[in-house]
Amino acid sequence: MFITTIPLIIDRIGDRYAMLIGLARLNSNQVGERKLNLLKNIPLNSEFKELTDTDLLAVELAKTWEEKSRELDKLRFLIINNIQIERVKKAGSWEEKSGELLKKRGKTILGILILTLEPASLEELTKTLGYKDKDRFRDDYIKPLRDNGLLQYTIPEKPNDPNQAYLITQRGKDFIGGHRI
User: Fold this and answer.
1) Element (H, E) at 168
2) Cα separation of 55 and 52, whole Å?
3) Percent of the chain with pLDDT over 90
4) Is residue 66 part of a domain?
């Protein structure tokens, strides 16, 4: 009896994490070392394995996020229409490139998913992402992310618990990595 073993090579986000946090308009200090390590370990869709050009990868991921968000209820991930790779390449930092790729809603959704790689409270999320109205933030972003299974409560049996926090789900990680969800 012969057994063939095929090694499964998983390409992870790795050093491309800087592109993702830049697109979300975050920096390493805001995210923190532990979340950065978790982000680096998220598997990247194998379709993107050959893309060594990080600018091109960012464009393809943005298109994938926008496309996948169409299948989700009340959770449109908005990108700039007619993305021009030349303009993305000319922009200096990832924060500048973010403006060529994502609309504010897309940046915020990506930021929430990154910041919830470890439990994060509504207070932490709104403060880090620069939102003042917590109720509106919860209704516009947190609720649709939860309803679509990309975020979960840390205390599901007590949604209004003062210690309530949010945590990304496997589905949310798959979304970041450009996988089918």
Assistant:
1) strand 166-168
2) 9
3) 60
4) yes
Q: Give pairs for 127-134: CB < 8 Å, separation 24+.
A: 128/26, 128/30
Buried/exposed code over 22-37 (b: 16+ C-beta within 10 A; e: otherwise): bbbbbeeebbeeebbe
Would 3 be classed as within a structural domain?
Answer: no
pTM higher than the cut 0.70: yes
Number of domains in the chain: 1
pLDDT digits (tens, 9 = 90+) for 24-41: 999 999 999 999 999 999
Listed in sequence order, the residues at least 6 apart from 44 whose beta carbon sits closer than 8 Å to its beta carbon are 11, 12, 13, 16, 177, 178
55 in any annotated domain: yes
Query: In a 3-state reduction of DSSP, which class is residue 47?
Result: helix
